[in-house]
Structures are given as C-alpha cells and as structure tokens.
Amino acid sequence: MGAVGVSAIGLSAIIPAAPSASASASASVRVDTMPTLLARARSALLTHGARVPYRDRIGLVDFSAASGVPRFQIVDIGNGRVLADLLVAHGRGSDPANTGVLQRFSNRPGSNASSGGSFVIGDTYIGKYGRSRRVLGLEPQNDQALARAIVIHSADYVSEGMARSSGRVGRSLGCFTVSHDDIGDVLALLGPGRLLLAERSNA
C-alpha cells in the first residue's frame, strides 16, 4: 500500500456511515481482565465521537504483557463479554533484542515499531498475508498508521505452539499480527468503524 494519509482519502472511503444513536457504549460494561484499558477505551469513544461510528464491540491490546500470552481482547460493549482473547505480535522496532516484551512505541515511518493509542478499524483487503484489515490512527502518536501500512493480518510467526515452546511469538513490522487460526474471528468480530485501543495497562 502506498504512503497515503487519512486526509487524502477520507475516513468515509474505508469506514461505513455511522449507525443510529442507539449503538452507543453501555455504562454497565463488566470486563475483569483489562479494567484499565477498558476505562481508557470508553474515554476514547467519547473523545473521538463520530470518527468511531460503531460501538458494539471494541478491541483491546495490552502491550504491557509479553507476546507469549494472549493480550488482544475483543469485547462486547453491550454485555461486557470477552468474545476473543488472542495472541498478537508487536513490532521489531519495539523489541530490538527479541525479548518478547514491548520496550517502546514509535510512529516513525521505517521504525518497524508498534504504535500505541486509539485506532479505528478500516476496510478489508487481500494482501501479502491474505485477508487483512487496515487501521487508522486517531491520535498524534499513531497518525502515520495508514501511511506505514499498519494493519491486522495473520502470519506463520504467531501461533500457540510457538508461544508454548519459546515463551513469545515472532515480531511484526509494526502490524497487529495474529495467528492463522484467529484471523477469521478477528475479521468477523472487529469490523470497520470500530475502536482498537493498544496501550500498556501499566503505563
């Protein structure tokens, strides 16, 4: 994908029109595993308003956890259920020594690092890794995500077997990379126009 900024193509080109006002965040969300990130995500939904039109489900990535444990949750806002709890890679530039733990975020093109903050899920396309989904950064710390081709995709270097044997999974070039077994669930549950929050819960 070329280095095209969000302003050049417009959010409406890759995110559907907003649903009715009834699709709003519930005040009675109950999630036990990531309460800190959930609170931040609810705040982000208020901050970003209509830029995140669909509010039935959100994605939470806790980059304070090691890559060998599931740290990508998809949560049903309406009833607080965790619909998926998945392994996800972080970028090489975020973990140069390959420790399995993210050391830093970067928004810089060519950094091969993960970016933190709030993203909105974009459109689906078929690329090098098969079915993938774009993400658009909503904040200064991740506003180069589209230009950097930061996406959600699957790859061989993320698997439960690797996590068990090595205590970590492989590293991406900054993308949210999941296993081949999980990509179908991610694409089905976390569709365009929904929030993805990626942060360190202990920061």
Look up the CATH topology.
L,D-transpeptidase catalytic domain-like
Specify the overall morphology.
Answer: globular
How many helices? The count is 4
The beta-strand count equals 8
Question: In CATH, what is the class?
Answer: Mainly Beta
Low-confidence stretches: 1-10, 19-32
Per CATH, the superfamily is L,D-transpeptidase catalytic domain-like
Structural class: alpha+beta
Number of domain units:
1
| Main sheet specs | 8 strands, mixed
C-alpha end-to-end distance: 32 Å
- Give helix and strand order, one letter per element, not per position: HHEEEEEEHEHE
Q: What topology, given as strand order, has the largest sheet?
A: 3-2-1-8-4-5-6-7
CATH structural architecture: Beta Barrel
The helical percent reads 10-25%
Summarize the structure.
This protein has four helices and eight strands; from the N terminus they run ααββββββαβαβ.
3D structure, described in words:
With 203 residues, the protein is an alpha+beta fold. The protein has one domain: L,D-transpeptidase catalytic domain-like. 16% of the residues lie in helices and 23% in strands. The chain contains 4 helices and 8 strands. An 8-stranded mixed sheet has the order 3-2-1-8-4-5-6-7. β2 and β3 (82-86) form a beta hairpin. The longest helix is centred in the N-terminal third of the chain and has 14 residues, at 35-48. The chain is globular.
